[in-house]
Amino acid sequence: MTTQDMPALPFDRPTILDIPPMLRILQAERPITKVRTMMGDEAWLVTRYDEAKYLFTDPRLIRSHPDPENAAKVSESAMMGGPVGTYETEDYDHTLMRSLLGGSFSAKRMRMLRPRIGGLVDDLLDEMAKKTPPVDLHQELAFPLPVLVICELLGVPYEDREQFRIWSEGAADMFNGEHSLEQLTELRAYTGSLIEKRRKDPGEDVISDIARAYDEGKLNMDYAVGLATGLLFAGHMTTVVLVEFGTLHLLTYPEQRQRMLDDPALVEPAVEEMLRFTDAGGGNFVRYARDEIKIGDVTINFGEAVLISGIAANRDPRFWDDPDTFDIGRETNSHLSFGSGRHLCIGATLARVELEAVFSRLFQRFPTMRLAVPVEELELLDNLLPGGLVSLPVTW
Fold first, then answer.
1. How far apart (Å, rounded) are the C-alpha atoms in residues 171 and 385?
2. What angle separates helix 144-154 from helix 114-129, to the nearest 10 degrees?
3. Are the C-beta atoms of residues 154 and 207 closer than 8 Å to each other?
4. Per residue, what are the HEC states of 194-227?
5. Which residues in 258-345 belong to E strands, given as ranges?
6. Which of 68, 95, 319, 383 has the fewest CB atoms within 10 Å around its CB?
7. Keyword Heme on this protein (predicted)?
8. How far apart (Å, rounded) are the C-alpha atoms in residues 187 and 163?
9. CATH assignment of 3-395?
10. pLDDT (tens digit, 9 = 90+) per residue, 342-396?
């Protein structure tokens, strides 16, 4: 099969709530298939759960590449459109990042944040209740909450939110590489300035921890800036998408929403089901083989790109019962929305705490909430890496 004959990303989908039918076709045929990325490069696409779980934990798959300029890329985004990090030091850098941030993002610390995050949700819902519906839930809740939380956690001035939103969205642009690089450069310059400020005036926040590690010689400034930039970017953009689609799923499945209202203990499993059902972060985890990997009848060669489709794995009928049914009462929900293994998303617990704070309050406060437009009129931000919605109009 030539590159031109391969299935080409991105795949079409009939509605924003469905996964692309092509993923289903490829998943039925075989677990791993060669595809053509948006950049015209070849990559392996993993669509079944077992193979995805295995490859997430395989140390031969990494995020960097020995020749990043010539590596296969999935988009024009300068943030995550291709290899990330330094090939020679990836293992060391990853271990350093985990040791540096492990305490900041520990489950214990995230649980301690629950009352504060719950209070932020209450404040945002209070303001929303003062407005005459319809309102845009993206502007009223989905965007401001993760930004407030990540600003407090990292030590980023909240008044800068509009500017770093512009830079973040620009860096996530999948179609305009020049614009993406310009905006990422601005975002890095901004986080670099915050590190310098914290070196002179440290606080009880993550950027102060990064600044302290730099002063102690544990990391260089380029790595420090990259780490802070990645945290600011991922810490709010992905969670915005999860709040939007979590709300949309519950508005689309009113019987599930009512179950959660009747039994508050279902909030936690409801959040896990939202995570399983939501295509956040661009749909694919991008990795590169640093050694030959044989899995089934497929041989992944050194340097080749591997795209692990979380949303396909999370709907694999070989692993899940009724995978396309949104069921907040699933007894086990081992989804792969945060990855798996040593590269499990460090902010996973924080995202869960934020989502549980939202969905233990939103529909209790607005039990008659409904979409203000037909779901077919909702628009995807399909030019940005994490996806999301242009707006989410609701009324009550």
1. 9
2. 150
3. yes
4. HHHHHHHCCCCCHHHHHHHHHHCCCCCHHHHHHH
5. 284-289, 293-295, 298-300, 305-309
6. 95
7. yes
8. 9
9. 1.10.630.10
10. 889 999 999 999 999 999 999 999 999 999 999 999 998 888 777 889 999 999 9
